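Record type: monomer structure entry
Structure origin: computed from sequence
Chain ID: A
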Amino acid sequence: MDMTRNESLNESFRAKAKELVAQMTLDEKVSQTTNWAKAVDRLGIKAYNWWNEALHGVARAGVATVFPQAITNAGSFDEDLLEQIADVISTEGRAKYNEQQKYDDTDIYKGLTFWSPNINIFRDPRWGRGHETFGEDPYLTSRLGARFVEGIQGHDEKYMKAAACAKHFAVHSGPEDIRHSFNAVVDDIDLWETYLPAFKVLVKDAKVEAVMGAYNRTNGEACCASKTLLIDILRDMWDFKGHVTSDCWALKDLNEGHGLTKDLEDSAALAANNGCDVNCGNCFELLNLAIKEGKVSEERLDEMVVNLFTTRMKLGLLGEVNDNPFDKIDYLSVDTDANRAFNLKVALQSMTLLENRNNTLPLDINKIKTIGVIGPNANSRRALVGNYEGTSSEYITVLEGITRYTREAAAKAGTAAPRILYSEGCHLYKDRVENLGIENDRMSEVKTICNYADAVVVVVGLDATLEGEEGDTGNQYGSGDKRDLKLPGNQQLVVDEAIKSGKPVILVLMAGSAMQMQGAEEKCAAYLYAGYPGAQGGLAVAKILFGEAGPEGKLPITFYHEVDELPEFTDYAMKGRTYRYMDHDALYPFGYGLSYNRYEVSNIVLTPYKEADGEALKVSCDFTNLGKMEGAETLQVYVSVHKEGAPKWQLKGLKKVRLLPGELKHVEIEMPREAFGLHLGKNDVTVDGEVTLYVGTHQPDARSKALTGTEPLAFKLNVSDGKIKLV
């Protein structure tokens, strides 16, 4: 859409919103500033609840397509795929909204303002909500987040299909149990180089409609009432035109948790004066008192309501609307066969193969008579979906997926299907499955199945009852966060026993964060990180295990050896964290993932081109699939800036490439000039000096080279006076 036309339309909606607000009483205006905005019948304003969720599908409002969790989708390293996912979500969201409106259903989770995506940086694997994010890297998060926003909001000339929200602004990633009082202290370099880039891209490039403040303080200021974040940076520096929402009941934390105000009325005033427009909660119900007492101006209240009404008008929810194409989307667009097929495709393209010794995978279905499927997540629906999920009309667990796949393959071939032997193995986190049983009461069954099986698939990990948001999980640990990286309960014993059997063991990890298995990674035959793969995830696992599809995911997070390698959880400095700053070799590195194919990158050419502020760089190469099956690989470009305090290297370019066997494609990545610079303590990027550019299919660390047997090609560059030169 033409940006000039876009700005003109926005101003037109804003002007109409101002006209409407000018007709309202003080109490009517205040009634619009909480998430459960009230109807104003005399002005034709319907009730509206701002709170809805769409992290990986329309959530908490009945049946919808339940895609893999966000962290799993991030493993696709495919920004086109993320926009397609979000497009399906917003279509289903519109369909559900249109039908709900027919029955005057304006309940929570029934609106078109989706509080997604979560673009916080997953800086520490202990954080329970990390699986809601796109991982640990600012660039990957920026690209995937921006395209998710575009898919949610659509590309219509006039109206948004739905409104996306970038959350949680900013510097927010645990611990969950102290988030209502915690002060995240961060220096300017980490603030601008790590914690803010994704928000900047979503605001300035993707034009995200909403931004949500975080629960915590950042450098002393409560994020939902931070002049620095919400006014100086968001409004003044980035020219944000949308609306700001608080996180839910975060404003009461201003006095109860952070001790910044004396009561709820003062909390409402502080947040309103510092840029918050709508309160998820009830503090803003006190704004009429705050205005009468001179703590907040009515002009500021008008501005808040204008911001909110402008969003509703851009959605086509206020005023006389007869030209909104999205009003025609009906309920038959929800949970379609096509969406289920696409959901399976997403799962297939997002899982990451970490080990494959002696080419154990794919399994030859014609040579296996008996398959053991063991583990607490093998037949678990919870382990498919993560948190903030909708309701699927069909769930396929790993056990069900393997059973279905092998039976259908055998029927097609006219042969007998392999026998599937299943055991839960152990409880997800308790020391026994049956309360009256003895400790580890399924171990004899595990041993029996391993004895009979030709190959054993062990499915372990977590689910959203163990890692998630404070208040949403009933886990054995602390408010959704993890204490360490080990498998909970007796899961490690089950893994070890399966390996001890001497049978080929394929580990399948279903979790939203990095785990370690105390050396079993080096003893298993193969290891697949499935994440939380969505409602169709079990079938996707089966198709990968038996080679109907090949794994193509890359890790969006670092797998560490031990939690002791990391700084304190409450330390928000990036030193020692993530692939960009860590001091140790990873267990499995960010950007790493194996394939059933071998891919070759050749004929790399670097070509400077002109931008407004100097030269940028085009990276071009040939990509060839040397394998025997169709597949996809991700071209990754990393930049190392040779300055003190800079990250070792950072992902700055990527392109997912799909190839038939033997096929060659020419690939190009355009890298803007700022890709070669650093935020040295401020918003502006400093681009000057020597850099090294790495082009390949993984980052240039020693561990990735050892795991893959390949390494990226390195190019020395000098950037000065707006020019980029090969050294």
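Annotation 1: The radius of gyration is 26 Å.
Annotation 2: The CA atoms of residues 97 and 103 lie 10 Å apart.
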